[in-house]
């Protein structure tokens, strides 16, 4: 591994925590940003207390780092400004700190496949604009952008309930019956990051990542997989789009009183109803030699979520 010191954001989150453990296991010196932690942990991680709004913390985080991996991101928000503050401005500040630090040789932004369709939601728009801002201020630092599809695995709180109910014999379907979905296990995403770190030379590129299932999945194929695993039928219940949109609008109204950012918003409904979330690993496989190893069927069968 060419990088000796790696700066990491989002290290306490679902993807970032798995990545941090893998980096530490590989003998990399990890500097991780966190709101409530500081000092050096038993595993050697140097925690930098601060946020993406704190320029001093970002300078300390990136000082002397060979590589910067930006996993932090906001997935819940009451308006576009909530998302922009973190996914756009926070990403830009981190890139600026990495450039000013003078030692960063490569920068990786963990974005989202949603950035491919920025008009769908506040979140998608912020991920797209965050990518643009990072590239704009990178200077000579090569910027790689990973756009994974829906990531799942141990520690994930979003897809786990869906998979648990699926294996119990229930599937709530959204959108059109022939909507195409794709997934990626967190271990495969982390292995892709390791391939990026191991690459002797990197160039600024954007990669889409999924588990490699040809043509992705639709609701019928998900039900079929679960039915095979449990050796029993899976009942499908259709969630009408009007009901989902009504709940989303009510969530926004309620958030004005609770001051809590909802997950289900009208924009999120647009994402859920989008007809095609498939992608291809061709570019990243050709460039970095990465191939996913865990198909959804295997993960469900072995409860790898």
Automatic annotation (TrEMBL):
Domain of life where this protein originates: Bacteria
Pfam families in alphabetical order: Epimerase
SUPFAM superfamilies, per database record: NAD(P)-binding Rossmann-fold domains (SSF51735)
Domain NAD-dependent epimerase/dehydratase: residue ranges: 8-201
Protein name: NAD(P)-dependent oxidoreductase
Organism: Pseudomonas hormoni
Taxonomic lineage of the native organism: Bacteria, Pseudomonadati, Pseudomonadota, Gammaproteobacteria, Pseudomonadales
């Amino acid at each position: 591994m060419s990088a000796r010191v790696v700066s990491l954001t989002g290290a306490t989150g679902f993807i970032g925590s798995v990545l941090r453990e893998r980096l530490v296991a590989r003998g990399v010196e990890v500097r991780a940003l966190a709101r409530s932690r500081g000092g050096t942990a038993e595993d050697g991680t140097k925690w930098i207390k601060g946020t993406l709004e704190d320029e001093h913390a970002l300078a300390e985080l990136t000082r002397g780092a060979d590589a910067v991996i930006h996993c932090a991101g906001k997935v819940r928000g009451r308006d576009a400004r909530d998302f922009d503050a973190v996914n756009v401005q926070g990403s830009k500040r981190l890139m600026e700190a990495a450039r000013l630090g003078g030692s960063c040789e490569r920068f990786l932004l963990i974005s989202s496949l949603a950035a491919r369709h920025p008009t769908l939601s506040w979140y998608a728009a912020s991920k797209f604009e965050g990518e643009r801002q990072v590239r704009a201020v990178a200077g000579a630092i090569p910027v790689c952008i990973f756009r994974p599809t829906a990531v799942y695995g141990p520690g994930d709180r979003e897809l786990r309930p869906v998979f648990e109910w699926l294996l119990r014999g229930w599937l709530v379907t959204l959108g059109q019956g022939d909507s195409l979905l794709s997934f990626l296990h967190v271990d495969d995403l982390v292995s892709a990051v390791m391939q990026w770190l191991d690459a002797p030379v990197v160039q600024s590129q954007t990669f889409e990542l999924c588990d490699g299932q040809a043509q992705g999945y639709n609701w019928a194929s998900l039900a079929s997989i679960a039915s095979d695993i449990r050796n029993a039928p899976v009942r499908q219940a259709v969630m009408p789009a009007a009901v989902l949109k009504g709940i989303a609008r009510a969530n926004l109204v309620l958030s004005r009183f609770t001051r809590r950012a909802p997950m289900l918003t009208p924009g999120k409904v647009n994402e859920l109803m989008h007809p095609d979330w498939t992608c291809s690993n061709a570019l990243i496989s050709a460039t970095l030699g990465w191939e996913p190893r865990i198909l959804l069927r295997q993960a469900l069968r072995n409860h790898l979520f």
